[in-house]
Specification:
The complex is a heterodimer of chains A (318) and B (504). Chain A contains ten helices and eleven strands. Chain A has helices at 2-24, 42-54, 73-81, 94-102, 136-146, 160-172, 184-192, 258-273, 275-283, 293-313; strands at residues 31-35, 62-66, 88-93, 112-122, 124-128, 151-154, 177-180, 198-201, 212-217, 245-253, 287-292. In chain A, the strands form two sheets. In chain A, strands 2-1-3-10-4-11 form a six-stranded mixed beta sheet. Chain A has a five-stranded mixed beta sheet with strand order 7-6-8-5-9. In chain A, helix 4 crosses helix 10. The N and C termini of chain A lie far apart (82 Å). Chain B has one domain. In chain B, 59% of the residues are buried. The chains are: A alpha/beta (318), B mainly alpha (504).
Chain lengths: 318, 504
């Protein structure tokens, strides 16, 4: 009888115990990490790198799901169509904000939870080392000589890099032509082939491509490592281009439970401080950046205004 | 000898049961994925990228490149047997491969496709190994005007593709070009003809359109003429082509392999364009051009050796410069990055074991593919003996699954059915569907590069740029010549009405 009592008690404790942890514990099933490109894209690599490093700190299972299409709109709409239970979050970049604007602002950024901005890729003015025009001074001199016929190449019109180019022309008082390519890679091929003088991208684009050279970087100070020789805009005498970046981070649908939120914030903190993660970020010429929630949202709203102005200027939106 | 030394490193990477098993797995998966409509080479490779993450970098890339090369062959199997190109480039293979099956000579079609793929693949890899770096440099020199000329040359092949009615082919190609204008404008970034639908933002996806035009349309035609009796193809011959037949097409294979490799090198051109152009060239060079489109072994060989050799070509810019030349290259680039490697000149210096491991694996993969293909063909060919009442519903099911598999989107399934209806109408009124594919594939290349060239240097660029001018002239004559021949033939026939009737 006594034995039975104890057994009953033990079972009760176990049941209550497991019940209470079930409430507090997140996650209890695999989490989907949505990526807006097909497997193998730069952002896909970023997301997968995140999941491998996250595995050091949590037993949670992450499944990377690729929902490509419409420059990220398909992925964002997917996130918005699912429950805000914290079991799906998405990798996001500044380009997605541009797409939200160019697709007519159907998506309200306030409906999304901008969880953490984790990486900042400074915008870079990239040239062909084998061309006679490969430093900032040479670019400016050549642009003035050609009077608006200098060719700059890069990805799609109205994107991050195009806007960076327009800002640069403004700040330096030069004129040039923007010739868009289907992808950054094809534009780099055009630069290597001598069809353009400048390519606008990020420091990581020159890694492993010895003929490409970063002429100027948009950062408040010089980067380390392979990029220690690269001058900043301030150093070449251009003001107001110290912080033009392509950020990468994570977001989800607004309204996830508190314990899920706590789980993510704890995880983002740990990954952000992880030595391997920082090494991965810096090797690509990027800068670890850590802005959460409100501050992230403020950046997004700022970006929206900037994209809207630029897209109006080139006539892509009314 | 540098090369020999490099290869001894390369082969030391792939010798051993594990790498060989990985190559065989890659080839099997590649063939099956290639044969499955909806899984294009880029999707097939992308599917296994996450799996390869836990392998060593060399093994991971060996697996992925084996899939790449095998999937280009796999696409021919369904193209020959059931007129459903498993990969976009196999649309060209279907033009002669399927007629062969209809004539009960499926074995010859499959055998030719296999051998042509193997030789093409080998030639492509050989050129890649020997001339990767200088070739990549030359390809970079091509300006937008040159690309425009090349694409226009591709479009001009329509004239020789048309059986009989050129006007109908022109309608078909214009339809394809028109379809390609849907979606985001490649230069200005403005969306065109999307009617506010997100799914149309990237335009129609090629694969569902292709499956619809080729396979679903056949199912619809069968519904229309269905008599209620499921006919089984009475004679199936799984005999391989004879040695004599192979010897007859050896120059076609060789020529097409070189064309395929060269076209593969240009970033953005790719396997499908390679197949179309080499088909056109082979038809012109052939002693029996009238057989093209009616089950010509030369036609099958031209298409298959070109699309397989384009793999080696497409790897040239990726490995030599780190510039992805095809959709699959872009996926491979991601796989390199996952392993913290950047393809390009530095890779040859820092990780020769990976570069030469890939080269050696590609050679072995080709051989494995030949043997697996020879055994597999006996199995695949039984598909043809399935009764029609089972076969056609099955094709419809595969088409739907395949279209869904591309992006996991029901919109693509609807698009596939829609294109099926279009294809059915086309066939019913005697319009060919292959030019539609040509239009869709080349539409963007023609448009983007034309606009880029004009933005850079104005309209004068097309005669100032000597290469572009010459290619444009060739394109013009290759378009006009078949038309002129047809016109002259008709005029002569009109002059002698008696003969005319006899000939028609």
């Amino acid at each position: 009888m006594k034995k039975g009592c104890i057994a009953l008690l033990v079972t009760l404790v176990v049941i209550v115990g497991s019940f209470s942890t079930a409430i507090a514990k997140f996650p209890t099933k695999p989490i989907k990490l949505i990526v807006y490109t097909k497997p193998g894209g730069a952002i896909d690599v970023f997301a997968r790198k995140f999941t491998t490093i996250a595995a050091k700190y949590t037993d949670a299972t992450f499944v990377v799901v690729n929902k490509s299409g419409a420059g990220g709109i398909v992925a964002i709409k997917y996130i918005l169509s699912e429950k805000a239970d914290g079991y799906q979050f998405a990798a996001v970049t500044r380009s997605n904000v541009g797409k939200i604007v160019s697709s007519g602002n159907e998506i309200n950024v306030e409906d999304l939870d901008w969880m953490a901005m984790m990486v900042s890729d400074p915008e870079a003015i990239i040239t062909n080392r084998t061309s006679p025009i490969n430093t900032w001074e040479q670019i400016v001199a050549d642009a003035k000589e050609k009077g608006g016929d200098q060719i700059w190449v890069g990805p799609a019109a109205g994107g991050n890099d195009h806007i960076m180019a327009m800002k640069t022309w403004n700040a330096a008082g030069i004129k040039a032509k923007w010739i868009p390519y289907a992808s950054g890679g094809k534009a780099m091929a055009a630069l290597l082939g001598g069809h353009g003088v400048v390519y606008v991208g990020n420091p990581q684009d020159v890694i492993g491509r010895p003929d490409l050279k970063v002429a100027v970087i948009s950062n408040s100070e010089r980067l380390g490592g392979d990029f220690a020789d690269v001058p900043t805009f301030k150093e070449v005498g251009i003001e107001g281009l110290d912080n033009e970046i392509l950020w990468r981070g994570f977001m989800a649908k607004k309204g996830m439970p508190e314990e899920a939120k706590a789980f993510y914030h704890d995880l983002f903190d740990k990954v952000n401080n992880d030595a391997e993660w920082q090494e991965y970020v810096q090797r690509g010429g990027a800068v670890p950046l850590f802005d959460k929630e409100d501050k992230f949202l403020a950046t997004v709203k700022n970006d929206q205004i900037e994209f809207a102005e630029a897209l109006k200027k080139i006539g892509a939106i009314k | 000898m540098d090369l020999i030394e490099s290869f001894s490193i390369g082969f030391s990477v792939i010798l051993g049961w594990k790498p060989l098993l990985i190559i065989v797995t890659g080839v099997v998966f590649g063939i099956l994925a290639g044969a499955m409509p909806g899984l294009s080479p880029s999707t097939a490779v992308a599917l296994l990228v996450p799996f390869s993450y836990t392998m060593s970098p060399a093994l991971a890339l060996i697996l992925l490149t084996s899939i790449y090369i095998a999937s280009n062959y796999g696409g021919s199997i369904t193209a020959v047997l059931i007129n459903t190109p498993g990969t976009p480039s196999a649309a060209v293979t279907a033009m002669d491969g399927y007629p062969l099956t209809q004539q009960g000579k499926a074995g010859k079609g499959l055998g030719t496709a296999l051998v042509a793929s193997t030789i093409g693949g080998a030639v492509g890899v050989l050129i890649l190994i020997l001339f990767a770096v200088p070739l990549a440099r030359v390809a970079l020199k091509f300006s937008p005007a040159d690309y425009f000329a090349l694409a226009l040359f591709g479009l001009a092949t329509v004239a020789s593709m048309s059986r009989g009615n050129v006007l109908k082919s022109m309608v078909a190609i214009l339809f394809g070009l028109l379809i390609k204008t849907i979606g985001i404008d490649p230069i200005s970034g403005v969306s065109r003809f999307t009617f506010g639908n997100d799914m149309l933002y990237d335009g129609f996806t090629l694969i569902p359109a292709l499956i619809g035009l080729f396979a679903v349309s056949v199912v619809f035609s069968k519904f229309e003429t269905w008599t209620g009796v499921g006919r089984v193809m009475d004679k199936i011959d799984n005999k391989l082509p004879s040695l004599e037949e192979f010897l007859k097409i050896k120059f076609t294979i060789l020529r097409s392999s070189i064309i395929g490799t060269v076209i593969g090198i240009f970033p953005g051109a790719g396997a499908t364009i390679a197949a179309f152009i080499s088909y056109d060239m082979s038809k012109r060079a052939s002693k029996e051009p009238e057989k093209f489109g009616h089950g010509s072994l030369e036609g099958v060989a031209a298409a298959e050796s070109a699309n397989s050799s384009s793999v080696g070509g497409a790897l040239v810019p990726l490995l030599a410069l780190g510039i992805p030349g095809s959709a699959t290259d872009a996926v491979l680039l991601g796989a390199f990055m996952l392993h913290d490697l950047v393809p390009g000149p530095m890779l040859f210096q820092n990780n020769p074991e990976i570069v030469y491991g890939i080269f050696s694996a590609l050679i072995v993969a080709n051989i494995v593919m030949l043997f697996l293909g020879l055994y597999g063909n006996r199995l695949f060919i039984r598909v043809v003996s399935v009764p029609e009442s089972v076969m056609y519903p099955l094709i419809l099911a595969i088409a739907i699954i395949g279209s869904f598999a591309v992006n996991g989107s029901m919109f693509d399934v609807a698009a596939c059915i829609g294109f099926g209806v279009v294809g059915w109408f086309f066939k019913r009124y005697g319009y060919p569907v292959a030019p539609v594919v040509l239009g869709i594939v080349l539409g963007k290349m023609v448009e983007e590069n034309f606009r880029r060239a004009v933005m850079m240097d104005g309209y004068g660029v097309f005669y100032r740029d000597k290469l572009a001018f010459i290619v444009l002239l060739i394109a013009f004559f290759s378009f006009v010549w078949p038309l002129y021949k047809a016109w002259r033939y008709h005029r002569q026939a009109a002059a002698a009405p008696g003969e005319n009737e006899a000939k028609i």
